[in-house]
Specification:
mainly alpha, 200 residues
Length: 200
Amino acid sequence: MTGALAAELRAISPAELVAMLLALAYLLLAYRRSRWCWVAGGVSSAISIVLFARARLPMQAALQVYYVLMSIYGFHHWSRDRDAAERPISSAPVRFHLAACAALVAASLATAHWLQTETQAAWPYLDSLTTWGSLFATWLVARVKLENWIYWFVIDAALAFLFAAQKLYLFALLSLVYLAIVIVGYLSWLKSYRTQRSLA
């Protein structure tokens, strides 16, 4: 089994490696609230479209198209501030997140049913839920919402399993690394958020 895993790791394509490194750069730059996170993320997503399509994860492939578009929006939105690192962090009320979670589950069930009956998708329900969750979490990042990190923690934990199951080992490893960065990012943003509120 170890030999089979080693063979799979050796078969990882250069494109997957580049996409993984750029995706890691995206999160590290987002943690620092640098607008350049959107450039790194956009290029990573453009590469990942093909990788996920080949791995029979259609929702993840479609998600990457959204990420490319969101990277343009995010870069523009974050570029409007003179000092990107001092961009104010905001928070949404609990009722907003309850409604958002209900909508995410409903959308996931609908697309998963379609994927299960009309495509050869490998993991229709998990693929759908992580895709819709990622769409929403990315929007929260662009709007500089504190809670984006909480969504990403849950999503990345699920993606680590999904990618490993589809033999996308670098992406699975990246998702595990993300979990650690997400915790640090949340604590950093929370500290800044509390400082902003105390100064307001």
